[in-house]
Recover the amino acids of this structure.
């Protein structure tokens, strides 16, 4: 059995989670039956302003990449626009950097002293994110190269196929002593040290049964991130939650979750996904146990 396994019983409502919910002066868009996942429909900067400092164990942020510039890509063999929505249109590199500084500053303030943040991005924003983290004094721990295994071909044939995204993992500041579930990561990697190159496919069809978000992340990516960097019952926040892939993964693993998005449609999708998880939690736990068992068998083989 892998360590840090999912709790058998119901989640015990943590007092600090309750306190955080109480301090956010907004009616939640949705709270699940277990009171372990809560969604807010608002600007994440405003919500983070009302969260007590030093209260969140881990943040995953998949911010706008600001890449909706009228370009073309390939989807299911067809030429399609890269545009994701108005929220993803760039106002220029200075504005992008200012925005990144503002939300990262708030993330840093609400992280616990040993808490960590993960931020995903492509070349459109990742250099600004890295620079902003350096300016704010985060402690950069790893830059993960997420290899997307089966990326769409490059239609112009003038560039290499874009096959990776970067996920930067950082501690709150230079004094933070971050948590890393080293042994679990090693076990998940057939008993070899897990490297910073992660091969994970794009979200599978079953992850989109209620519709899809234009930039939806795979559950496997978020499960790995949450397993690696949180303890049982830890509090996870996603300031750009979209379809709440982070929330689904957090719920499966037995963590508390706060998701924020200023788009109601995406939160409707989030709600459906989280309700599905609640209805099927026993089946999902059985599936996770099977995967754990398979990992143990592989290690022994
Ligand atoms: C890249 S997507 C996140 C997708 C998500 N990781 C998923 O798996 O579905 C970024 C999200 O940020 C939201 N967003 C953009 N600016 C925001 C802001 N200032 N406050 C809250 N949400 C915002 C957008 O509506 C969008 O859903």
């Amino acid at each position: 059995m892998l360590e840090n396994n999912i709790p058998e019983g119901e989640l015990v409502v943590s007092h600090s989670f309750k306190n955080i919910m109480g301090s956010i002066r907004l009616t939640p868009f949705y709270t699940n039956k277990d009171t372990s996942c809560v969604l807010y429909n608002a600007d994440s900067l405003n919500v983070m302003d009302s969260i007590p400092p030093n209260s969140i164990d881990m943040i995953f942020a998949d911010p706008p990449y600001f890449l909706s510039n009228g370009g073309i890509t390939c989807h299911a063999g067809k030429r399609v626009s890269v545009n994701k929505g108005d929220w993803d249109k760039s106002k220029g590199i200075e504005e992008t950097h200012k925005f990144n500084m503002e939300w990262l500053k708030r993330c840093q303030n609400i992280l616990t002293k040993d808490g960590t943040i993960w931020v995903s991005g492509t070349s459109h924003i990742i250099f600004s994110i890295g620079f902003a983290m350096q300016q704010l004094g985060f402690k950069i721990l790893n830059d993960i190269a997420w290899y997307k295994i089966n990326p769409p071909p490059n239609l112009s044939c003038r560039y290499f196929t874009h096959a990776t995204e970067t996920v930067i993992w950082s501690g709150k500041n230079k004094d933070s002593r971050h948590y890393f579930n080293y042994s679990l990561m090693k076990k998940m990697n057939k008993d070899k040290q897990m490297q910073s190159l992660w091969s994970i496919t794009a979200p599978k069809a079953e992850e989109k049964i209620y519709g899809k978000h234009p930039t939806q992340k795979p559950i496997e990516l978020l499960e790995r991130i949450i397993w690696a960097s949180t303890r049982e019952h830890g509090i996870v926040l996603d300031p750009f939650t979209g379809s709440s892939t982070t929330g689904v993964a957090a719920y499966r693993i037995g963590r508390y979750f706060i998701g924020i998005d200023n788009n109601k449609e995406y939160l409707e999708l989030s709600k459906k996904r989280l309700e599905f998880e609640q209805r099927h939690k026993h089946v999902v736990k059985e599936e996770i146990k099977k995967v754990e068992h398979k990992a143990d068998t592989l290690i022994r083989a």
Summary: The radius of gyration is 19 Å. Residues 11 and 34 are 7 Å apart (CA to CA).
